Amino acid sequence: MLQYSFEQLHEQTDVLKAVDEDVTVTDAFKQRSQHLINDARNLHVKGQFFADGDYVTGSFQVTAEVEAPSTRSLAPVVLHQDFNFTETYCDHQPTAEELEDDPDLIVAEDGVIDLQTAVEDNLLLSLPSTILTPAEANDDIFPHGQGWEVVSEQKAAEAKKYKPNPAFAKLKGLFPPDKDN
Fold first, then answer.
1. Is 171 helix (H, G, I), strand (E, B) or coil?
2. Residue 84 and residue 43 in one domain
3. How many CA atoms lie within 13 A of 1 on its CB side?
4. Which terminus of the chain, N or C, has less C-beta within 10 A?
């Protein structure tokens, strides 16, 4: 577990605390992310903590190989994630003024900064909203079944553009066919 003492980090005002660790996701993370991620491996965090006035700020880069379900077919897709995040911690309940300056201020519960949970949370936040297999991305493959299919917005707009208006189709029968055309 990647846990650090807020007090020790806060006292090191002239030194950066370097972090360069491989991360193994926790069972709790696997449970809460079970519908978003199938597997996370080769997870690595690198960065540093530094004292910043009454706060401790951490700036990190995370790399990981993530297997997640395709958002179209639920087929497994392996993604390489490489992202940065920065978090600021305090050892007390922040005041309204402090939250106005930094609305994302995080309280170090029991004086402990839990970098493990921060890495896991930011891994989930880094996932793209659309995840496609290579075939789905290249060939515009959409789910379909008996009597239904999912179509792209472009295909739906084209179908709507060329679809005759049913009200005018009824009028067609009122007039005899024009022999000149």
1. helix
2. yes
3. 11
4. C
The top-scoring range by mean pLDDT among 7-21, 76-90, 138-152 is 76-90
Distance CA 22, CA 45 (A): 6
Residue ranges making up the domain that contains 142: 136-172
User: Do 125 and 140 lie in a common domain?
Assistant: no
Q: How many domains does the chain have?
A: 2
Q: Give domain status of residue 146, yes or no.
A: yes
Whole-angstrom distance, CA of residue 29 vs CA of residue 116: 10
CA distances from 82 to 23, 79, 94, 125 (A): 14, 10, 31, 12
3-state DSSP percent of the chain in helix, strand and coil, to 5: 30, 35, 35
- Rounded Cα gap, residues 149 and 88, in angstroms: 47
Q: Determine the distance from the C-alpha atom of residue 20 to the mean position of all C-alpha atoms in its chain, rounded to a whole number.
A: 23
Looking at the fold, whether 99 and 55 belong to one and the same domain comes out as yes
Residue-wise pLDDT tens digits, 69-128 = 999 889 999 999 999 999 999 998 988 888 888 888 899 999 999 999 999 999 999 999
Q: Kindly state the tokens that stand for 114.
A: 């839990």
